[in-house]
Design a protein that fits this description.
Chains: A alpha/beta (397), B mainly alpha (265), C mainly alpha (224)
Helix content of chain B: over 70%
Shape of chain B: elongated
Strand content of chain B: under 5%
Largest interface: B-C, 49 and 57 residues
Largest sheet of chain A: 6 strands, mixed
Strand content of chain A: 15-25%
Radius of gyration of chain A: 27 Å
Shape of chain A: elongated
Number of strands of chain B: 0
Oligomer: heterotrimer
Chain lengths: 397, 265, 224
């Protein structure tokens, strides 16, 4: 539990919220520490109180009891308007001001903080570029002229305008089509690599949580924490049945989306150059235990698969380079294992060919590779837990 | 002429103007009782005041109970007659003006009727009196002419805001145009039309007062004769009675609107 | 037997003689209406802003201003002049008109403010805007088209009612109408009544055009 995670940016202490006229509290005695510079996802079934929890951090909803610490300072009772100017806030429906231009929208908080005009204008330009929108084109447009995805980007830019250390995001990508959402998520992750803000992110989609989060808090009713950990650990070791159910089936597959090809040890299948004679290729094939040989060109780029049958036909006078089957499933080292598995399922011999940036052959990912990888992950997890287990056993001695 | 852009904004605000004061919610019992009780108290006070006062000859004349009742009844007749006339004429006109062949005329027509609100009713009454005659009938027609503008506008706005897809699906099911009108469009437009009728009724009862200037019997007579005969007391009583009648009529119309509004809208 | 001239020829001649006086009356009429509309707007918007979020005060305000509008104008005018400080003349007319103009403005202010998208208000709150700044920079500007429509409705209403104010010696074109009424049977009666009535209508059209211009100039492109 005690991971070295830098300083703690936000600390929630026994936070509770009871709405008037409701029997059960929406949030009951929640305590949580959010490390600096990480994306922490609050995820859970609807009604579990995750949005309420997030909205208590900037006191849009005032807590009934408990305390909130921001960078060590108790902000439970400070002036809420001033508090909120230090925190970025993005909600699902975005809420851009329809009667103001994009530039005016983004400039809202800096203006409240009395920045000078030049600084504000520069910041607006900088932010629009950061979210991938041409400032010249979009600065003076109105929200109604923008698409849903564009509005979402402006919403994020607006929340970052005063460069807050903390950002709260409530299902920010929820109301967009899946294609745009995927793109926005990737862009946001790339952005976070540069800006490293502390972000609380609420979603009901476990896949989004796994993709976006450095740490995930899976919440039950009344915002009780079922598990608060990194995505890898949650997937490999769910704390209880609730978490396991919430992850849903395919936890192992989801786990694969977190590893990349470059992280695993590639297998080698037999290869031969395209100019080789059929006899040479047959020799390579017989020497291995695989059923096909991969032909490479002079730059080591994969061309075709040939097996014993194809070789037989080559003897009969057909040229080697025209026989066999095209080598299709090709992946780069930064591809995720789940994407690779996707390629493999429809590929020849259930393999994916790994190439480098010049498309030169590196190795093969086959089903054995996948098996080994998953097995290694599980053993590593158990190995991490094992010292604690043995320590307990010793104590109980 | 006012902006006739078919923007969302225009449609929304047009509907807002037509709808008038928000109605329809069932009020608490206290809400329903307040107005009649308050009005009753006022009437009692008026009666006490008249009984306890030394009336001179002119006042005795005007404030005699049977005179007041006669004027009140005439006033009510004026109101009912003019409103009935409006009902008969304005709604059909409103329907016609929203039919497809008249579609292009609709926005300018609505704008025209909005401006019509500014026509001075006293001028209208005077013109009718000169062109026709004094008395009951010109007053009825003049009142109807004025408040028709409101009801036609409301009818048009109410019919226009019926969702086009609802009409389309009805036609798609094989309904005739008349059927669509009577079974789909009008029922959906009823709340706005009723708001218009209620407003018309309220305005009519108030404007009927001015009939006194063109020789029609009504409570306005008390006000005018008190004013010209320099008997402020008669004027005051007349003014209070007219206000009470108007508030009562509006109250009853409100109840009718609350209860006659179709469920589900 | 004098030559029969048609009523419109008679009217046209009348206009040619009196258009200057009519213009002055129209100006007085306009001024009275403008003053009353301004007062109504200030009070009405204030009432709307104070009550739009709380149910009871809101219903009460709407009920009271609605009741005011139901009181027949002749009654209100003749009752007001009985009060000590007022008496005959422009003062009573302005007071009565201000009272009449309240309902459309209050109602539209309330509806306009309540129709502002909650997400917009919440995002403003989330960015740390104080209540006052939110109201001034976000909610009112967004409600403005609806509020302005209310002011426009009130104006048209008051232009018509102001004519009756002439009965209690109020300024404006109503004077022409009442003069004509008093001399019914004479040659000029119709002319006077017509010029008064049409003058009011022309005034209404002019005011409406001004509102179209105000709409164009004060509503930002983003919400048109």
């Amino acid at each position: 539990m005690t991971d070295s995670a830098g300083t703690i940016e936000i600390r929630l202490e026994d936070l509770s919220k009871r709405f008037p006229g409701q029997k059960e509290p929406a949030v009951e005695s929640l305590s949580m520490e959010i490390p600096k510079g990480e994306i922490v996802i609050l995820v859970g079934p609807s009604g579990c109180g995750k949005t309420t929890t997030m909205k208590m951090i900037n006191r849009i909803i005032e807590p009934t009891s408990g305390r909130i610490f921001l960078d060590g300072e108790d902000v439970t009772k400070v002036n809420p308007d001033h508090l909120r100017r230090r925190i970025g806030y993005v909600i699902q429906q975005i809420g851009l001001f329809p009667h103001q231009t994009i530039a005016e929208n983004i400039a809202t908080v800096p203006k409240m903080l009395d920045w000078d005009k030049k600084k504000i204008a520069d910041r607006v330009e900088e932010l629009l570029e950061m979210v991938g929108m041409d400032p010249g084109q979009y600065r003076d447009r109105y929200p109604k002229e923008l698409s849903g995805g564009q509005r979402q980007r402006v919403g994020v830019a607006r929340a970052m305008s005063a460069d807050p250390d903390v950002m709260l995001m409530d299902e920010p990508f929820g109301a967009i089509d899946p294609i745009t959402r995927d793109r926005l998520q990737n862009e946001f992750l790339r952005l976070q690599e540069d800006i490293k803000k502390t972000i609380i992110f609420v979603t009901h989609d476990i896949d989004e949580a796994i993709k976006m989060g450095d740490r995930i808090a899976i919440l039950k009713e009344r915002s009780q924490i079922a598990q608060f950990d990194t995505p890898e650990r949650i997937l490999v070791n769910p704390a209880d049945d609730f978490v396991a159910d919430f992850i849903g089936r395919g936890a192992s597959l989801k786990r694969l989306s977190l590893s990349r090809v470059r992280d695993v040890e590639l297998h080698q299948w037999p290869t031969a150059q395209e100019g080789a004679s059929p006899d040479e290729v047959r020799r390579v094939l017989d020497a291995s235990d695989k059923s096909a040989v991969l032909l490479l060109d002079s730059q080591q780029r994969p061309l075709r698969w040939v097996n014993a049958d194809h070789l037989g036909r080559a003897d009969g006078g057909h040229e080697l380079s025209k026989l066999g089957l095209p080598a299709e499933a090709v992946v780069q080292p930064n591809a995720t294992l789940s994407d690779t598995l996707n390629e493999m399922i429809t590929a020849r011999y259930s393999t994916a060919i790994v190439v480098d940036a010049d498309r030169a052959y590196q190795g093969i990912v086959d089903i054995d590779t996948i098996n080994e990888t998953v097995r290694t992950m599980r053993e590593a997890e158990r190995g991490r837990l094992r010292p604690e287990q043995t320590a307990d056993e010793e104590d109980g001695q | 002429m006012p902006d006739t852009e078919q923007s969302n904004l225009d449609q929304k605000t047009a509907a807002l103007v037509a709808r008038g004061a928000p109605a329809g919610r069932r009020r608490s019992l206290l809400g329903y009782l307040f107005m009649p009780v308050a009005l009753g108290i006022v009437l009692v006070l008026v009666w006490l005041s008249i009984s306890s006062r030394e009336l001179d000859a002119a006042e005795q004349n005007r404030l005699a109970l049977d005179y007041i009742l006669r004027m009140t009844w005439a006033h009510i007749l004026l109101t009912l007659a003019s409103t009935a006339l409006v009902l008969l004429i304005a709604i059909p006109v409103g329907i016609i003006l929203t039919r497809p062949f008249a579609r292009t005329m609709t926005p300018p027509a609505i704008a025209f009727f909005n401006i019509g609100q500014a026509v001075p009713t006293i001028g209208l009454l005077a013109i009718f009196a000169i062109a026709w005659q004094f008395g009951f009938f010109p007053t009825v027609v003049a009142l109807a002419a004025y408040t028709s503008l409101i009801v036609v506008r409301n009818t048009m706005v109410g019919l226009r805001q019926v969702d086009a897809s609802v009409i389309e699906s009805a036609r798609g099911m094989g309904m005739t145009k008349i059927s669509v009108l009577s079974r789909i469009e009008l029922p959906l437009a009823v709340p706005v039309i009723m708001a218009g009728l209620r407003t018309a009724l309220t305005i009519n009862v108030g404007t009927a007062t001015l009939g006194a200037f063109i020789g029609a019997d009504c409570l306005g007579r008390l006000i005018v004769s008190g004013f010209s005969g320099n008997r402020p007391y008669i004027t005051i009583i007349g003014g209070i009675l007219v206000a009470v009648l108007a508030l009562l009529v509006d109250y009853l119309a409100g109840i009718a609107e609350d209860f006659l509004r179709p469920k589900g809208l | 037997m004098p030559d029969e001239i048609s009523w419109y020829e008679s009217f046209w001649t009348y206009l040619q003689f009196t258009w200057q006086d009519l213009a002055k009356l129209a100006l007085d009429h306009a001024i009275v209406v403008i003053i009353s509309v301004l007062l109504s707007t200030i009070i009405g918007v204030a009432l709307g802003v104070l009550t739009y979020r709380t149910e009871r005060p809101r219903e009460l305000t709407l009920a009271v201003t609605g009741t005011l509008l139901t009181i027949p104008s002749l009654a209100l005018f003749t009752l007001l002049i009985q009060l000590p400080l007022l008496g005959l003349g422009a003062g009573s007319v302005i007071l009565a008109l201000t009272m009449y103009g309240l309902l459309p403005i209050v109602r539209n202010t309330i509806v306009g403010l309540r129709e502002v998208e909650p997400a917009v208000v919440e995002s403003a709150q989330g960015m740390g805007m104080s209540r006052g700044k939110r109201l001034w920079s976000i909610e009112l500007p967004l409600a403005w088209p609806v509020v302005l429509t209310g002011v426009r409705v009130s104006t048209l209403l008051l232009i018509g009612i102001a004519a009756i104010g002439a009965y209690i010696n109020g300024p404006g074109l109503g004077d022409e109408i009442f003069s004509g009424l008093a001399q019914i049977g004479s040659a000029t009666a119709l002319n006077q009544v017509l010029s008064g009535t049409l003058g009011v209508i022309v005034l209404a059209i002019l005011f409406d055009l001004v509102y179209v211009a105000i709409f164009r100039f004060t509503i930002p492109k983003g919400i048109r």
